[in-house]
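Quick note —
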Amino acid sequence: MPRTAPGYRGRFAPSPTGLLHAGSLVAALASWLDARAHRGRWLVRIEDVDTPRCVPGADPSILQQLERLGLQPDEPPWWQSLRGDAYAAALERLRLHGMAYPCGCTRKEIEAALVAQGRAPAKHGELVYPGTCRHGLHGRPARAWRVRCGTDESPVAIDWHDRRLGPQHQDLTHAVGDFVVRRADGLWAYQLAVVVDDAAQRITDVVRGEDLADNTPRQIHLQRLLGLPLPRYLHTPLVLAPDGDKLSKQNGAAPLRLETPADVLQALRAAAATLGLGSVATASTGSREAWLADATAAWARVSGLA
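Predicted structure written out below.
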């Protein structure tokens, strides 16, 4: 039997920019299985702070998809769009401690400054902030808020361990630079919102897609600055599109087909195959509940919990 992890709390945090697809189901199933294998609690949080990208009606449809899949949260879902006061309080704490500052730069100005410094960004590469507004706006209006990430003389290096990927390291100062926590359009940045909410929901384990692994150092930096607990991390394999890129809503990923019990089991088996759960990835009989029980046992075995 899976062993109990006292106080284990996991979560699945979809963005309602469309319905769940095969790639997002992998993260949803992995986080649910990890919580069940630890005999912990599993939460759902709707990450809808990026309101221009949210599709009306997608959030209740996502919750319905999870219900059809048998992935039921143990507590009522949260919506980030209702959490602005908590994010504002966190930003104020950072500001009072001198760790956040207003920035008046546009993207074009940042790119031009990097070129002038001989640090032209690679195509599709990280736009490392050059620190233009670190010491004041110099009469320009504030557009965004950034958090400080060290200096050349005293860089911030983040070492962390991923339960699947192993030891990880990032020189946050030179790989990312001071990053945005409140956007120029007034919306809250993902990095701040996720850190504040993981702490507020007492999340102990973050299980999500591998494409978000490079966000983890930024979130650990914020957790340390705000004095918040650091959860454990596990980043799952990605489902790839035919062109080799991550399968996503942006490249036309089709919503999950969940019209019949057979559709549900087929979707779950495909996600299990991506997660390396061979013993249940090919199972074709039994109820959804029986399959999920077998998948939980398989996850416990491969995770060393059984």
